[in-house]
Amino acid sequence: MSKARLLAPWVDDGSDRSAIYHVVSRIVGRDFLLDARCKEQFVRYMRMYEAFCGVRVLTYCIMTNHFHILVEIPPKCDRHLSDEALIEHLEVLYSEEYVDQVRLHLELLEKATHPEGRAAHTELREHFTRRMWDLGLFMKTLKQRFSTWYNKKHGRRGTLWEARYKSVLVENGYAARTMAAYIELNPVRAGMVEDPKAYRWCGYAEAVAGGQLARNGLMRILSELDSDTAVDGWSGARDITKYDWRTVAQRYRLILFEDGASYDERAEIAQQQSRGFSEVQWKKEQEREGKLSIAEIARCQSRYFVEGAVLGSREWVNEVIEGIKGDFLSESRKALSSKMRGALDGCGLWSMRKLE
User: Fold this and answer.
1) Is 5 a domain residue?
2) Could you tell me the end-to-end alpha-carbon distance of the chain, in angstroms, rounded to an integer?
3) Domain identity same for 234 and 196
4) Residues 248, 300: one domain?
5) pLDDT under 50 in the chain at which residues?
6) Do 164 and 33 belong together in one domain?
7) Residue span of the signal peptide, if any (predicted)?
8) For the residues of 279-314, what is the DSSP string, one character each?
């Protein structure tokens, strides 16, 4: 029996808060099946279902045997979605002929004066909107659609993905920025490229290449660090129009490459010395008072970024734990926030590890 998926505890309480998740899914057997064409197709489907489901991909990285997506799930807003806006969502997935039929049907039912007609109008809308603003359905449809394409393309049958996807609930701001850096640096850590902008199938590279959706995602991540960018409406909304991409690009690149050159230097020194640090390292560590860069954090052990369940400040993690209800946290199962240790000690982030 599959375990209940941890979702933000405010999802179903009518709150106007969004929720950010880091989701990971691997190819069955962890085989390296995703070549360049497969990665391109996966990104295409990801953007397609992002638009249809009304979610926001903040950044991503498609590797050869797994993928990472940092996705924001807005609160359900079906009551505020006009028929015209619903049609725009449908145009992403369905044929022009089918969309025209739905549009005509909605127009006829919307004009109905009897209760049965109004009920039919609501039912038709819900047939589509129940698949929107939902992490599970976004992931399910994306993975199924890609699996169908891949199996047909390669003449294979059976499951393509290894078990269910993993997800980590991530706090806005510093935690989300840290997670984004961890995702972007995957191909660098794997030795596939020396610069993340050279890896075509990640959010940063897409943004550098001019992709507006990718740029919006990165601006959205950085906007959470600025308290003056909130706009009216749901609390997850941010005004990214105040940001200039060139400025954001420079800022985000510094995040990704902070201390990059010195990291290579330290590796060379480590090979030449049997113990201790160089004088340059020691002085630099004093100057920065032991504070870790985002890049250093992202290079550390991945268990907090993949195997955990919640990532954020201590107060925020505890808030999530207090709000968890239902099957995920029963009377016999306990959860505690834990400070990140080892190389991550001092970064200000806490985690709730996945429950057994």
Assistant:
1) no
2) 13
3) yes
4) yes
5) 1, 229-236, 259-278, 281-282, 332-333, 354-356
6) yes
7) none
8) HHHHHHHHHTTTPPPHHHHHTS-THHHHTEEEEE-H
Split into its structural domains, the chain has a count of: 3
* pTM to 2 decimal places: 0.78
The answer to whether residues 248 and 104 belong to one domain is no
Q: How far apart are CA 110 and CA 128, in angstroms?
A: 16
Range of the domain at 105: 78-129
Distance CA(332)–CA(305), nearest Å, equals 26
Evaluate whether 308 touches 168 at the Cβ level (below 8 Å): yes
Report pLDDT for 60: 98
Whether 69 and 213 map to the same domain: the answer is yes
Same domain, 121 and 45: no
The predicted-structure confidence for 155-187, as pLDDT tens digits, reads as follows: 999 999 998 899 999 999 889 998 998 899 888
Q: What is the pLDDT of residue 309?
A: 74
Does residue 311 share a domain with residue 181?
yes
Q: Specify the long-range contacts of residues 182-185, CB closer than 8 Å, at least 24 apart.
A: 182/297, 182/298, 182/302, 182/305, 183/22, 183/59, 183/60, 183/61, 183/68, 183/70, 184/59, 184/61, 184/256, 184/298, 185/256, 185/295, 185/298, 185/299
Tell me phi and psi for residue 178, to 5 degrees.
Answer: -65, -45
The confidence score (pLDDT) of residue 315 equals 85
Query: How far apart, in whole angstroms, are the C-alpha atoms of residue 19 and residue 8?
Result: 6
Say if residue 145 is in the same domain as residue 234.
yes
Nearest residue to 74 (alpha-carbon basis) of 104, 53, 91, 43: 53
Length of the chain: 356
The pLDDT tens digits of the residues spanning 45-76 come to 999 999 999 999 999 999 999 999 999 999 88
The answer as to whether 11 is a domain residue is no
Contact, 316 vs 356, CB < 8 A?
no
Q: Give the per-residue pLDDT at 280.
A: 59
Q: Which of 292, 311, 344 is the last residue of a domain?
A: 292
d(CA 313, CA 348): 7
Predicted confidence at residue 235, as pLDDT, reads 42
State the Cα torsion 28-33-37-42 to the nearest 10°. Answer: 20
